[in-house]
Design goal:
With 225 residues, the chain is an alpha/beta fold. The protein contains nine helices and eleven strands. Strands 2-1-3-4-5 form a five-stranded parallel sheet, sandwiched between helices.
């Protein structure tokens, strides 16, 4: 599971991240709302933990922007504001749960687990054509055949499956998988796309990764001969 923390109190953000990593989550943290919105809109996270009062863009605005992109990622909103009107504003902005500071870390973990349980099978598996990606084991499955993916292969395949027939640019893949600050270049994407194509063929998948010049990649189901 991949979690994004958007919280301007760095000590708190990093403390939450450390706890979640110890529980097996993959975690990224950013420290202002504007950057948080950019990351969240990549659509690669299973959960957003979002502070309300932040520089550049507050949490309400971030939540509204994420929902405007039709992203259904669960949002757990953290804030020192405990008033009824504040909670209503947060929920109306798109938050799924509203946790008031200060909070016990056990309560935070319970909220996270509850939100992820609500996602059901969507959290555990992505399906396209006759092929599925098991998110818990990073395994591609097609009928009785299966193959494990490396970390980068898994992240790219998940992004492609989430986009489906919509084109995903190389720049977007680089940002999602390698991060904004990475030195990776477009050739890295091309290499891993090649690896994934071979693995899809190896399990007998009818899913093809199609390249469109200057637009990137998308998935298609191959027609039967």
């Amino acid at each position: 599971m991949k979690v994004l923390i958007i919280e301007d109190e760095r000590l708190l953000a990093d403390s939450i991240a450390e706890v979640l990593r110890s529980k097996g989550f993959t975690v990224e943290a950013v420290y202002d709302g504007e950057t948080g919105a950019e990351y969240a809109e990549l659509g690669i996270y299973d959960l957003l933990i979002l502070d309300v009062m932040m520089p550049k863009m507050d949490g309400y605005a971030v939540a509204r922007q994420v929902r405007a992109k039709r992203l259904g990622t669960p949002i757990l909103m953290l804030t020192a504001r405990s008033g009824l009107e504040d909670r209503i504003t947060g929920l109306n902005a798109g938050a799924d749960y509203y946790l008031t500071k200060p909070f016990d870390i056990r309560e935070l973990l319970a909220c996270i687990n509850a939100l992820l349980r609500r996602q059901g099978a969507q959290v555990d598996e992505l399906v396209f054509g006759n092929t599925s990606l098991d998110l818990s084991s990073a395994t591609l499955l097609c009928g009785t055949s299966q193959v494990r993916l490396s970390a980068k292969e898994f992240d790219i395949m998940r992004a492609l499956l989430q986009s489906g027939a919509r084109n995903l640019s190389k720049e977007t893949i680089l940002a999602r998988v390698w991060g904004y600050d990475s030195d990776a270049v477009e050739n890295h994407v091309e290499v891993y796309i090649g690896f994934l194509r071979k693995k899809l063929l190896s399990v007998g998948s009818n899913v093809r990764i199609v390249a469109i010049r200057r637009l990137g990649y998308h998935l298609e189901v191959a027609e039967d001969d």
